[in-house]
Known about the structure:
The complex is a heterodimer.
Chain A: H1 8-13, H2 20-30, H3 43-56, H4 69-78, E1 84-86, H5 92-111, H6 120-132, H7 145-161, H8 164-169
Helix pairs in contact in A: 5-6
Chain B: H1 22-31, E1 53-59, H2 66-74, E2 79-82, H3 90-93, E3 110-113, H4 150-154, H5 168-178, H6 205-217, E4 222-223, E5 233-235, E6 239-241, H7 266-272, E7 276-278, E8 281-288, E9 294-301, E10 304-315, H8 318-328, E11 343-346, E12 349-353, E13 368-370, E14 385-390, H9 394-405, H10 410-416, E15 422-429, E16 438-445, E17 451-456, H11 461-480, E18 484-489, E19 492-496, E20 522-524, H12 539-557
Parallel strand pairs in B: 1-2, 1-10, 2-7, 3-17, 10-20
Antiparallel strand pairs in B: 4-13, 5-6, 8-9, 9-10, 11-19, 12-15, 12-18, 13-14, 14-15, 16-17
Helix pairs in contact in B: 2-7, 2-12, 5-12, 6-11
Amino acid sequence: MPQYPAGTVRALLSTDLVTPATRAALEARLVSAAGYEPQFFDPATYALLEAVAARIFPQPDRETPIALTPAIDQRLLAGTADGWRYDAMPPDREAFRLGLGGINQAAQAQFQQVFTALDEARQDAVLEQLAAGNAAGENWQQLPQSRFFEDLLAELTEIYYAHPLAQEEIGYVGMADVPGWQRLGLNETEDREPTEVKL
Amino acid sequence: MPEEEVLEESVLNPVKPEIQDPLLQALLAESAALDAAPTEQELPDLLPNPVEEVDCVVIGTGAGGAPLLARLAMAGLKVVALEAGPRRNPARDYATDEKAQSFLFWNDERLSAGQSPVAFGKNNSGTGVGGSTLHYTAYTPRAHANDLTLHRDFGQGVDWPFGIEELEPYYEELEHFLGVSGPTPYPWNPSRRKGYPLAPLPLNGAAQLMQRACAQLGIQTSPAANAALSARYYQEGIGWREACTNRGFCQAGCNRGAKASMDVTFLPLAESYGAEIRADAFVTEIERDEQGRVTGVVYEQYGQTVRQRCRHLFLCAGAVETPRLLMLNELALSSGHVGKNFMAHPGMQVWGTFPEDIRPYKGIPGGLISEDTHRPKNADFAGGYLLQSIGVMPVTFATQMVRQRKLWGQALRDYMRSYNHMAGINILGDCLPHAANFLELAEEKDARGLPKPRLHFTAQENEQRMNRHAEKLMRQIWEAAGARDIWAFERYAHVIGTARMGLSGDDAVVNPEGRAFDVPNLYICDNSVFPSALSVNPALTIMALSLRTADKFLASLR
């Protein structure tokens, strides 16, 4: 699979190929979230969410992983939405309460331990059950598990790929659009588009 | 949005984290002066005088409201438009960033029910001066004559109360006013009198792949008609608009004004003729007298409640908020059809991974079209669909991909590394009304204390057959183009039909001129009045109906 050189997006951000509004949005995400204190979740539930996020987006290649959970904590605190919700799902705060509780119930049923106490392989086994709609736990009687997993996966994915370092990883440089794009065709790239690294 | 607790302002201030990355520290220091986060409009000094009565109030400034607002203002009427969202400055406020542009979407929560729940927010609904046209892809194919006669031709759905000849002069006017770029001649519309005013936009990688494969399979293709400028264009009331730079961000906001959204076309024209546009004005009530005539509207603006009296009301709030306002105000309900006949276009996408370097972020997203599937010979369904190539930005692509494929963990990151090698095709297909598909008010309340809308949608036999036909064909095309790992995403977009137009108040909400059967001075003009969904993107037809509704109304005043 394609690999792109490191530093390309960060280098573009310092150029005038990027508009001020774009630079402001992307640089705000590059700020490290180390030491973030949850304001909506209690610490134990937040640690559980972090553990789940770390398996859905494993980042062994990064010294400092892209933080995915602060944005969820802040969104639930503010009570904002993205325009819709499956009618079969309860309001978002309730869905997270039931869903994260349900992940612990599934971990207990399968391995007799809470999710955060499991090793990575067992955590993945619990998430595989959830993704397949087979997780155990009484909370899932109130919450459709496949929809909860889908919504959680989609929200984490949106946060991850909105991050400049994740965009660097996949060779996306659409933010550097100030001069416009002239070379649009197949296998045509402009100088500011990174080329794949042969490993 | 949950409402179980109200939070104090002070709780909402997040902790500012420290910056650790030295490269980033340097970048931030350099650009501190350029910190240009989008800001809302400043508060006006004076609220409008509530005693004054205007000729017309128009609710909504999208494709349904903006063209008629201009028409009414040009006829010398005193008109006021109320827009729920803010007014923005695209050059300053529109980042080339998907998340930073989420303010363009109608983000108040809607509840999606049924077996094929429809996504809203960025999938469908806009807010702000310009409405959903701020983020439409600006695809502007015309409807075909037989799009309006599904019942005549197939015995299903309902026919429009007039023929295509009522829309054609408006299509022509719109293409020339907006500056549509497109091919001349257009292969699937021989009756067209005039060509497109501008040449087609260039084809990007996905469009070239689709073109190549369709040529092999004997499917005719053409560059699509798109309301983005392929060259500088002069427009009355606005001046020169600059050409598209192939920025690829059409599904969000254009920061250049090349895309013909209403904020850079009909709305400045309307304002140049004296129309007043009030942003951040959310209408909650429609007031009537004892005869049932509308006398005015009540709206919330900057925390205040304002009343605006009017002689005529044009409701152009889109096919969710329009029926919602009618239901909340128990208005125009005598037919029993408000909220019924909800249709959504089948918008199935097929994606594949290619050896070629494609870079899906460049160029107009929908570059290539085929309408050979408008009435396919071997079809087992009513109506038809069109095919479009698609470009896409990474966040949108990744989130819909995981909803479909449920990839997670290392497999998800590995798949997304090939983003630059991915291309898609999608359809835009007709949809039939069905009793199971409707909008209703839910028990659950929004932040204003108003019931949230709940939309039920289940793809019925006709939509399912069309999807199967289209998926098979799109897979063939991508196989011929050399794709591997081909997958399909079943989706539905556009909200249509919840206050439909017809000949009788027994089964329609408005008459062929857009006037409510049971309220003499209420007009509805947006995608909610479409009697059928059409096999083409709706925006151009919404605008054509808007101009027609204005002309019929003006004629009735004479």
